[in-house]
Amino acid sequence: MTTRTPVPLSVLDLAPIRDGHAPTEALRNTVELARATEAFGYRRFWISEHHNTRAMASSATAIIIGQVAAATERISVGAGGIMLPNHAPYVVAEQFGTLATYHPGRIDLGLGRAPGTDPWTTRALRRQHASGADFPEQVAELRDYLTPGGTDRRVRAIPGEGVDLPVYVLGSSTFGAALAAREGLPFVHASHFAPQQLDEALTLYRSSFQPSAALAKPYAIVAANAVVADTETEAVRIFSSLQQKFLTHFRGEMRFLPPVDDIDTFWNRQEAQMVNAMLAESYVGTPDTVRRGLDDLVARTGADELMILSEAWDFDARLRSYELLAKTWTERT
Q1: What is the CATH number of domain 9-231+280-330?
Q2: How many whole angstroms separate alpha carbon 220 and alpha carbon 197?
Q3: Which pLDDT value is given to residue 150?
Q4: One GO CC annotation, please (predicted)?
Q5: Can you give the residue ranges of every domain in the chain?
Q6: What 3-state class would DSSP assign to 208?
Q7: What are phi and psi of 48, to 5 degrees?
Q8: CA 214 from centroid of its chain's CA atoms
Q9: Are 100 and 159 within 8 A, CB to CB?
């Protein structure tokens, strides 16, 4: 038999806050998880941006990235992503220019157009935008600050100007795919919670891609949920915490709750359909089961890389999930 080379695996982290626990624990676990997944051989470690939720501590994303990069040595660290409508592009250029100056060649900047929060918090962020309609203009402005410029430039991002800072476009629809294709940038699909337009978005991205100085050919990263355990039963139980997280979101306030033995006792049929639709790209089970599922995902989408979210109420189970996946992903013939 011939040895197959699998696509790279990366990590998406939301700094989940366990219900009844403090953000301190979540942020400490994020750093520990980054160290561990670097040792397991993952390519990237990305942190999301969310605001005004007691289920996630990933609000000050750039600060967390700095802590993670300082605590690791080789793994690329980045934003998955910065929700650009919440920020002045100039400030993002300065922040990530500073990060890239501290950690040359290791910082990624993923950009999304959703606010990542509710309308009240959007107003508190003091940003005015029309549902992200000006996202392409914001991306262009930000990238302009990062390009090398002469001394005659009126406004300069220092640090930021001319740094080695790869930019990625995040999206869950054809909007982000079209932008990434037009600008010749890598595209990351958020199929871990919005899988409905995955195939359509990737098809559009590849068919309309324009080569650029940043990227010669399309590069697509697909995000997916994966929970790996020693038994199918335990993996399904662990996964119930993520299912409850989306269920409580639909009910009005997202919470990260302990796992349960039978999730069907916690929701009605309509709620189950909504949650299962959002979590359709989830792979749960033993190492062999999850590897086969992710192999099928790669074959179906042609993904160049997978971004894995593996959430578990118990942090040791979370570490074990990433460890088992990394091992089964590389040890194949």
Answers
A1: 3.20.20.30
A2: 14
A3: 56
A4: cytosol
A5: 9-231+280-330
A6: coil
A7: -85, 175
A8: 21
A9: yes
Can you tell me the distance from the alpha carbon of 244 to that of 79, in angstroms, rounded to the nearest whole number?
25
3-state SS string for 125-182: CCCCCCCCCCHHHHHHHHHHHHCCCCCCCCCCCCCCCCCCCCEEEEECCHHHHHHHHH
318: left (phi over 0), alpha (psi -120 to 50) or beta: alpha
Residue 322 clears pLDDT 90, i.e. is over it = yes
Position 44: which residue type?
R
pLDDT tens, residue by residue, 229-261: 999 999 999 999 999 999 999 999 999 999 999
Strand partners, 278: none
Integer Cα distance of 33 and 36 in angstroms? 5
Q: Find the mean pLDDT for residues 80-96.
A: 94
For the stretch 246-249, contacts whose Cβ atoms lie closer than 8 Å and that sit 24 or more positions apart, written own/partner, are 246/193, 246/274, 246/275, 246/278, 246/279, 247/271, 247/275, 248/55
The backbone torsions φ and ψ at residue 223, rounded to the nearest 5 degrees and listed phi first, read: -90, 140
- Both tokens of 127, joined, read 């940003």
Identity of residue 6: P
Contact criterion met (CB below 8 Å) for 322 and 11: yes
